[in-house]
Amino acid sequence: MEKRLVANNISRYKVVKKDWFAYNPMRLNIGSISRWSGYEPVLVSPDYIVFRCSNDSDQKIDPNYLDHFRYSDQWDRFVTLSGDGSVRVRIYFRDLAALRLILPPIDEQQKIAECLSSLDGLIAAEGRKLEALKAHKKGLMQQLFPQPGQTQPRLRSPEFRDKGEWSYEELSELVDVIDGDRGTNYPKADEFSDSGFCIFLNAKNVTKNGFKFEELQFITKSKDELLRKGKLKRKDIILTTRGSVGHFAYFTKDVPYENMRINSGMVILRVKSKEIDPDYLYAFSNSAPLTMHIEDISFGNAQQQLTVAGIKKLPIYYPELAEQQRIADCLTALDTRIAAQAAKIETLKQHKRGLMQQLFPAPEGQE
């Protein structure tokens, strides 16, 4: 490890030894606290508060146990409600020392910490598998689609290797580009109702990973009829055109909603040519040539934008339909594995959250 001097005068810097904690009292509310797990002591800025766990025979606290406690609901409530200051909350050691927690015997603390550390290790391992799958897909995408300046990919199935160069068209030759609705004064519906509604999608509902349905806006059916041009059909592809431009989402049969419209922050790409498969077009949406072209035509300083005219000129490279479907099937299968791995990680995280609530109960009167 490289050793270097970070200041001319380090006399006021504080020493942090193994299993000691250091935190910034001005930033504890955003997680600026850590336990040092290295064997050699380190120095931290004098702005930090340094403390270690008590080793008294009657009140021993295992450092690893306390480290896990920092991720409990009880700790979050403490950080939210404690401290001084109205703009930037300061949580000094006197505030931290006032925190009350249920403290089991030291051997039980160690078992709890070992259990949670093991679970953290499993989550981290599954996270590495997820990143490996994503990296594999990224590398595969570079081989399955022609790179900029090329007319065929480096990797093709044996039955297609003698098919020659791919075709090229501007997007408008293959796809209808349908702009979103610019209206904003539609009556809102709070939830699903018998009188009817539609989901009014905006750009935050479309991410680089597809649809995000955590925050939805509903509008009533009476105004729904005014939004005919923004109505989604199955196999439509949505492209964001303002803010986070270049994000795509695919309205397949697996999307759990039926009646959806888009606003002016995106466009619908609806295939009109029999020469191209919608599944392939969505697979191609994250290819290097298309991504680079979108970056080139986007404009704006505070907020990036795309024009419909620019979108219509996007370059689309494609082989014959059979090869298109083979590519789409390959990437869809990989996306399914990635989604399953992500769901597995989320299940483990939910299990840990439930376990934390049981292992770190709040003292009586603090629920």
General description of the model:
- There is one protein chain.
- This protein has 367 residues and is of the alpha+beta class.
- It has three domains: 14-101, no CATH class; 115-147 and 321-367; 167-318, DNA methylase specificity domains (Adenine-n6-DNA-methyltransferase TaqI, Chain A, domain 2).
- It has helices at 63-69, 73-81, 93-97, 106-144, 171-174, 221-224, 278-284, 288-297, 308-312, 321-359, and strands at residues 14-16, 21-23, 33-35, 42-44, 49-51, 167-170, 175-179, 188-189, 197-201, 206-207, 210-211, 218-220, 236-240, 248-251, 260-262, 266-271, 315-318.
- It is elongated.
- It starts with 13 loop residues before the first strand and ends in an 8-residue tail after the last helix.
Q: Which radius of gyration do the C-alpha atoms yield?
A: 27 Å
Helix content: 25-40%
CATH topology (fold) name of the largest domain: Adenine-n6-DNA-methyltransferase TaqI, Chain A, domain 2
Q: What's the structural domain tally?
A: 3
Strand percentage lies at 15-25%
Report how far the terminal alpha carbons are from each other: 45 Å
User: How many strand units?
Assistant: 17
Ranges where pLDDT stays below 50 over 5 or more residues in a row are none
**Strand ordering within the main sheet:** 7-16-13-14
Query: For the residues shown, what is the average pLDDT?
Result: 87
